[in-house]
Design brief:
Layout (H helix, E strand, L loop, with lengths): L7 H10 L16 E6 L5 E7 L2 E6 L3 E6 L6 E5 L1 E2 L16 E2 L1 E5 L2 E6 L4 E6 L5 E10 L6 E4 L4 E13 L2 E9 L5 E8 L5 E3 L5 E6 L5 E5 L11 H4 L4 E6 L4 E7 L11 E7 L2 E6 L2 E5 L5 E6 L10 E7 L2 E6 L2 E6 L10 E4 L5 H9 L5 E3 L7 H9 L7 E5 L5 H6 L10 H7 L4 H4 L3 E2 L2 E2 L2 E12 L1 H6 L11 H9 L1 H4 L16 H18 L9 H11 L3 H6 L14 E7 L11 E3 L11 E10 L6 H12 L7 H4 L8 E2 L3 H21 L2 H23 L2 E3 L1 H10 L4 E3 L4 H4 L2 H15 L5 H19 L1
Parallel strand pairs: 6-7, 28-29, 28-30, 36-39
Antiparallel strand pairs: 1-27, 2-3, 3-4, 4-5, 8-9, 9-10, 10-11, 12-13, 13-14, 14-15, 15-16, 17-18, 18-19, 19-20, 21-22, 22-23, 23-24, 25-26, 26-27, 30-36, 31-32, 33-34, 33-35, 33-36, 37-38
Length: 767
Amino acid sequence: MMRRTLSFLLALVMLVCGFAGNASAMMIGGGMTVVYGGDSGDDPVTAVTAVQDTLYLLHQNGQVTTRPVDKNEEIVLGEVLNTQGYLDEPPATQEGQARMDRLFTWQGEPYGLCSAAGEVWRLLDESGAFAPAAVENLTLDVSSLIRKNESAGYYSTAELNSFFCQDDWLYYTGLLYGEGTPEAMAGRINLATGQKQDFSCPKLSAFTPGENGQIVALLYDRMAMYGSGSVEDIRTPAQYGVFDPEKDAVDAPTDIPTENEMGGYAISGICYGNGTLYYRDGSRVMGLDATGQSRISAYTGEGMYGGMNDYANLYVNGYYVSCSYDGLSVLKLDSESLKNGALTIFGEFGSDAHKTFLKNYPDISVDVSGEYTNDIERLTQGMISDSEAFDVLLLSMGSFPVERLMQKGYCADLSGDAELMEIANQMYPELLEPLTRDGKLYAVPVSLAGSCYGVNMEKWEELGLTEDDLPQSLGEFYDFIANWVYDYGEDHPDIALLDYGQANMILYSLLINDYIAYMQAQGEGLRFDTPLFRHLLESFRQIDFDEIASTQDDDDEYWHIEALFSTTMSVGYFYRMGGVEYKPLYLAMEEGGEPFVSMTMQVLVVNPRTKRMNEAMLYVKNYLNNLDKANANITLFPGHNDPVENSYYEKNRQETQKSIEDAQKRLETAGEENKAEIEEELKWLNETLESWEEYRYDVTAEQIAQFREEVVPYMHVLGQSVFITADTSATTEVNKLLMQYMEGATSLDQLVKELDQRVKLMEMEDM
């Protein structure tokens, strides 16, 4: 979404309607190149180290296991207290029980570190048996890993992305979180003295042990994402070089090659072995040899942001080992299967449905393209490429030229697959209609979501208003906002009108996007010189946003958590959240009309020229069979109406019930001096059980019924418009015209005249 070819209006559509994708990564690859284990779930791996070709793993539940790097055969060694997340001295453990949250290898043996206490623990005794023992007379200075700010009343903890031992030093890099912007940090701790050394070399992003005791550094300014950095700043190439800890400098840094559109931001997870620097580049592990030549060494199958949340990366005897918040990944490097290439997916960011394919079909190599564009020429070129062509594309109907791709023959006919069609035919027919030509289906929906305004009914009733007083149309909504100060604002300075303190541009963009969608729904060509558009813009221009801000007690705040109106309330994404509950406002576009809900639909398209048609179709069917149960599985299928239970509900209910029974038994035999404490414990446990019952369902049957009744009859899927297929200069000119009107530099008559001229020109060029 960083490409400048995406116009301001299209960017707002993606922002509001929600673009696919979860940036988290699934640790697995394909082509018989992967051995995987310690996957996320109830017992994820939180730390890893290696001794020769044996991995030592620390699980979240405190279990310490071992396994060969080339086999997923874990052996449980024992258990420790996993102190991950502790910011202060952890509680005392049972006698002899170790406590740790990180693992490292020192002098050929596995060790653990308790970051909160600075303790170092040896895992094995001299015979090699699991017998954790604290290293006596050694306490490390961990003040860089957990920074305590007593005066401000908070602790800051580091998210490390490299941590290892080299020559009696523990090296680390990461981000330190606290108040405000994260802070990049890097340093080392002496394992003989416990003293630390902070590094200040600019742009240090990660370390890895190199040859002959060298330290190889990754250089990239990740703080550009948190400051005022431009797109060009973020795309700046990452570099690598040998780090001199005495000089606190990198000798002769060299650019790391990448074809990813995110540039250096896509580079992560460095490790060194066999004369090669290995690194993550989106969904690939690349190898960079001494000549500076790079090669694909493994496919991870992750999304475009693969590897961004790794906190351990190791080279172990020809394998790339990484650990992240999603689990453990072990990839065979430079295997023979790489010669066959991979099934290439365009537009995936690592959704759960995508991850299931990686898990269900580990023998199929999967690559995720680092290319991201909505330009039809670049899309079609990517589909006919001789190498690394897109096999399957995940596209948004409102932001990509799906209809044009269908017209030009760039979408494979899916209707010949009986299994796929059986699933598709259970969907709302109106969703399949724009994807069907001459009775054949050329794309299949995989998500449906939109946005509407919301009202905080508690605040609404504080104004003395009822549901009957709610605005019914977009024009009435603007009138209420325009009259807010005079009617209510001066008397209620404690009520923020809109959730965003600078909502004028958001509302303006939503107006334009809703109008475009509404014209599509009417089956009319896109024209702006209409009574409706004139009425909406005239109503909008009556709003004095500066006057509204002047009546707010907290007008300096950018976001108001308990505002009267929410500007972007999700439609089609079902979730329950604490705090303010907003009632959706499904507004009509015209006075006296029916509600109108613009929705964005994502679809999967198969390249008809793919050389992997069977694998591509398998991917699409697997995707459809693993849609998000709490969202797409409901919004796309009218027959899916069962409530969705919280995946943690049953386990937590049983554990809480067991604790209640245990407390009741203790109460029966307790002395008078202990009964009050146990009774208080029982009260708390019963309240916990009640709260789990209250949040038993992620999506309730009532929510589903409400969606069927209030949204489905009035929803319209945003389709292709000339703003999608037009070149960048054309959409830039349109945005310029809209901004000129917003700033009062042009009249409404002039605006609609010039907008229609631009649209007609774009339509002619689009033929």
